[in-house]
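Internal QA ticket QA-208
Title: Verify multi-chain structure generation after dependency bump
Assignee: T.L.

Test input:
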Amino acid sequence: MQKKPALRDLAEKLAFAAAVLALWEIVARAHVFGMRSEIIFPRLGTIAAAFVKNFVKGYAGVSLWTYLLNSMKLLLEGMGIGILLAFVFSGLSMVSRSFHNIYSLIVAVADLLPGVALLPVVIIIFGVNPGVIVFLVVHSVIWPMSRNLIDGFRSVPKIYVEAGKNLGLTGTGLLRRVYFPAAMSYIVSGLKVGWARAWRGLISAEMIFGIAAAPGIGMYINQMRTNMNNAEMYATLVVIVIIGLFVQYGILNPVEKNTVVKWGMRKL
Amino acid sequence: MKRTLAILLLVLVCAASVSAEGSARLTIAYQYGLAYAPVVVAMQQGLIEKAYADAAGGELEIEWVQMSSGADINTGVMSGSVDVGFMGVGPALTGISKNVGYRIFSSLSGQEHGLMSSDPEIKSLSDIIGSGSQIALVNIGSIQHIILARALSLNGSDPHALDANLVAMKHPDGMNALLTGSLPLHLTTNPYIYRERETEGLYEIEELKSAWPKENSFIVGVAAIEMHDSEPELYAALCSGLSAAIEYVNGNIEATAELTSQYDGNAVEDEIRYLQMGNYSAETRGVEEMAAFMFENGFIEADPGSYADLVFDNVKGN
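Actual output:
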């Protein structure tokens, strides 16, 4: 029963993607940007060849894989720390009224500051090492995640909490067995926003702060741009999109399906 | 959907710029800092417009765009939205070797470069090789990186021996990192290098000073070949207007400082000192040598050719 609409959804998405690609190819072939259009707006074939070249040849003998692995490592580290801290602080906000008061002010202020604008201060505090990037990823995850968690916890109906208490749950038990599942819908949204923010934060930070000993994907984009290798630059953007789609459809959607959708809290 | 919209918008913008042609118009892109002082003078005093009016009798409308890297200007020239750009000799040679469609029409300025150290143990480049000491500079593949490679090569070392020690960050961030001890080395240029030289506790690595002295071209002006070929009067006005601006800077340092200090916020006395330490000249120096070095050491993939392939016929120098 579920299968047919799912196939239709997929077909729609594929058709849209094909249309965008076709438009790209038409614009590229029409030389819209003048005589040298091919360099700034390459054809799909050129970008595909550059995609392969990125992994086989890379830049200065270092394959894009190395850049990618470095970035993913920092990203996972930052997201892990960010999510954990968001849970801890949001949990504490549920327990203590004063903590909640102060923490919600911190969230409101800190969420407004773009990580990249903090870079000079962060370098002074942390020094020049990949820790700076991890810090910026944590910064981009923790605030939106905390916002969602607190909203989620606060929206748990009082009756659920009372029922839990009647069953003898207290403290962390109450948090784990009542608040957590009841706020799952918010948690999943928080994860989605947090992931997207982290990914973007990572790449923009790497584009302006690059450590040659631990080069990341943002630095790769920058090097391709500096060297006017535009096809390679677009191909790297494609890699970013592929990873983004993989996380969305391969990780976040199944999580959503097996929790909030299964429990009847939300439609997929 | 966003991409579609963006493409449509770009198409419209291109169409609009084509239809606006007819009267003499020029889009000139430049960047931030004192190395671009003559461009600011030419802009403020309308020197290129004057030169055009004197020679061709027509009115010239110039749109000045301030961009933040040579790579951005390269993209602008390629898409036809920028006719003239000022950038480091590195990105200019990259653009020429990539067939962006421009050549150098003038040198603009030469500036001192320096590598400053906060670690008394580090006195020469060979002290850094093999150590994990980090060097902040503005970008991997930037002119500063190439100058470092040149210093290493002049020293008999592998030009890429320090590539793994580099950290890319903007000049002011690099200076902050050096001053707070986050890293021990910073390779920079005017005006940061002068501030760092005046700071106690920092030492200069002398080998770098001679790798690309200020007499050599650092910032150059490039002009679209199409513009040069199709509008010779406009091209001539550009060259004479800019050389008048360079002459003005050299002859009126104080007045120039008054003008440029409004843009970068330095005190006028500092500005005068910084301007005096720069070398402003239309004649190129070292460009062919730089092109050969970049090609030999893999900073550019294609051979940019000899001096005649790099500059327009009227340019003097080497």
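Spot checks passed. Chain A touches chain B at residues 20, 23-24, 27, 32-36, 39-40, 60, 119-120, 123-124, 126-128, 208-213, 219, 222-223, 225-228, 230 (CB under 8 Å).
Status: verified.
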